Amino acid sequence: MKKITTKVRLAKFALLLLISIALFSLNVKAQDPSLPAANLGLANITDGVTPGPGFYYANFTQIYQANSFRDGRGDKLPTNLKVNSYFTIHQVVFLSKIKVFDGLLGFTAFLPIVRISPSNVGGPTPSVNNGCLGDIIVAPAVVWENKKLFNHPYFHRAELDFFLPTGSYNAADAINPSSHLYTISAHYSFTYFFNQELSISSRNHINYNTKIIGTDVHPGMFYNVNFSVEQTIYKTFRGELCGYYLKQLNEDSNNGNDHFYQDMYGISTTKEQVLGVGPGLAYLANQRLVLEGKVFWETAVRNREQGIRPSMQLAYKF
Length: 318
What we know:
Layout: H1 2-14, E1 19-21, E2 24-28, E3 54-70, E4 81-100, E5 103-120, E6 137-149, E7 152-163, E8 175-176, E9 183-193, E10 198-209, E11 217-218, E12 222-234, E13 237-248, E14 253-254, H2 260-265, E15 273-285, E16 289-302, E17 304-317
Antiparallel strand pairs: 1-2, 2-8, 3-4, 3-17, 4-5, 5-6, 6-7, 7-9, 9-10, 10-12, 11-14, 12-13, 13-15, 15-16, 16-17
């Protein structure tokens, strides 16, 4: 019985495994769909702070190095298949002087560029779409600058992201840069200063996905958060202990049936989960220029790949 269960769990992934990475999605044919876009550790340090109205440019770069796949119980699957990736995201921001709910109204857009590299020693390798465009994201935001909470500086922001299925997609390929669906993601970010040298930051997302276009496949809703504890170590250099966490909230469904994949393939759950933690170092020049480097090691993984995620961020206000 144990061997049969292991084969069923392995088959769930080995036919063409699922993965979603940062602010783009890899659409992989499998018995149940992978979650689409997730901001996993792209922005951490002083994330709620915005240095006033104007135009901004930001670049986020991540390299994802997979080392294993995990099933719904967190057990390592006996497969050599790995899906590594490199991507960079270009972001443009305009923060106006228009007041909304006592904050400043802003607008932003993201363009992801993706490269995907699967490998499978001794086994079949899934086909990959050679296109490099991920799904464009557009969003309005409201920014509250330098407020007070318990008599300490408190910066925060609310944003509503719309993920548009504009990226490279081919139904004949197992892995695509585009998720081929729409996602609405509401997030709230803040930075709280205990003093000039010590602060904490967090970005909380709640994400709703539509069905994959042209199908009855509906990935579940999920929550993800980025977080960091930040300390000045020398003048404009700040160190951080940072991380991210993702938790799928409900089962994937097919034609409205949220037990379809359990009944069809004998798996216990389709819900995904991952926790990534690691150190970071940033250079902040009055928040006008931000350079941040960090690396995350993943643990507590369910129904997805587990790996290492080096990340860099550059942000500049014109």
